[in-house]
Design a protein that fits this description.
binds zinc ion, about 10% strand, alpha+beta, two-stranded antiparallel sheet, about 300 residues, elongated, six-stranded mixed beta sheet, 3 domains
Length: about 300
């Protein structure tokens, strides 16, 4: 089945839920969000109008002030009766692990979870399914992510939504960055230290210094990137060992960083054309790629 958009796919896989507080009117319209022509619609004043949304969708479909029911549904709801609070993995062609028991819209193809267990997210990003799939990560639980979530296809470069960020990477880049984050977490470094690539002085000792130097050098092209932010957000302590067994990163002594021995960023041969001026301000590949040219990830 082909889905018009990420929000529509989520609504379909949730079983096309209806909400008593959100009435569909028998008004034929073109959906301002997904562009579908539908026989039943909802005026935007009941969904995205007057809320904290920007008007990016309305600008995209300037002629319409109505949305389909599915698009209205993903943008609305209160308390437990909404999708916004959940991190979501949607895969029509792959059965997903059980969701958080409190997630009332979860189905075998719509996984809803919290930060406590992001394994289905990690699995999907590291090893995407062949067909369509979508991931939206609720970092704060306050931001809408599903309205901005894009459908990915197969194992090429993907884009996922995390609060107000769009994150793009290939599965290989994700495995690389995630594996190094795990190795540093295992050595005792905090997510904040890893994301900033700045260890606390007290954390460095004879045992941890070589580990830090090795992995931080490999991560330096990703400094400040959305991908590194995501990779430091995902692992919980409880699943650290399980992740480490799946994503082992090469240790100190096995790479160029250690042969040079100066802790300077060393180019990963897989990242062709990147980081030529690494001695200058180091810019990760993530931010440059946000949006991938189809939508600017407008925030709200
Ligand atoms: Zn729609």
């Amino acid at each position: 089945m082909k889905y018009a958009s990420g929000p529509v796919m989520v609504w379909e896989l949730a079983g096309r839920p209806r909400r008593a507080s959100l009435a569909a009117e028998p008004v034929a319209a073109t959906c301002a969000m997904c562009g579908r022509d539908v026989a039943e619609s909802v005026h935007v004043k009941h969904s995205i109008g007057g809320k904290s949304f920007t008007d990016q969708y309305l600008l995209a479909r300037r002629g319409s002030d109505r949305t389909c029911y599915g698009c209205a549904w993903v943008c609305t709801g209160k308390g437990m009766d909404q999708i916004r609070m959940w991190t979501v993995v949607a895969v029509p062609d792959r059965e997903l692990p059980p969701s958080n028991p409190k997630a009332q819209y979860a189905t075998p193809h719509l996984h809803c979870t919290s930060r406590a267990d992001m394994r289905a997210v990690v699995d999907t990003l590291a090893d995407p399914p062949d067909g369509p799939w979508l991931v939206a990560v609720a970092e704060s639980g306050q931001k809408h992510t599903i309205p901005y979530a894009r459908i990915n296809h197969g194992a090429g470069r993907w884009r996922v939504r995390m609060d107000a960020r769009d994150i793009t990477a290939t599965p290989g880049e994700f495995r690389e960055v995630f594996g190094r984050v795990l190795a540093l977490r295992k050595a005792g470094f905090t997510p904040g230290e890893i994301e900033a690539l700045e260890p606390s002085v007290g954390r460095l000792n004879a045992a941890t210094l070589p580990i830090w130097r090795h992995h931080a050098a490999a991560l330096s092209p990703w400094r400040g990137s959305p991908l590194l932010h995501l990779a430091t957000f995902l692992p919980s302590k409880e699943h650290l060992d399980e992740y480490l067994s799946r994503f082992p990163a090469d240790g100190p002594g096995s790479g160029d960083a250690d042969r040079l021995g100066r802790g300077v960023p060393v180019r990963d041969p897989r990242q062709r054309g990147r980081g030529e001026d690494r001695a200058e301000a180091v810019v990760g590949p993530g931010p440059d790629r946000v949006g991938d040219g189809d939508g600017d990830g407008c925030l709200f």
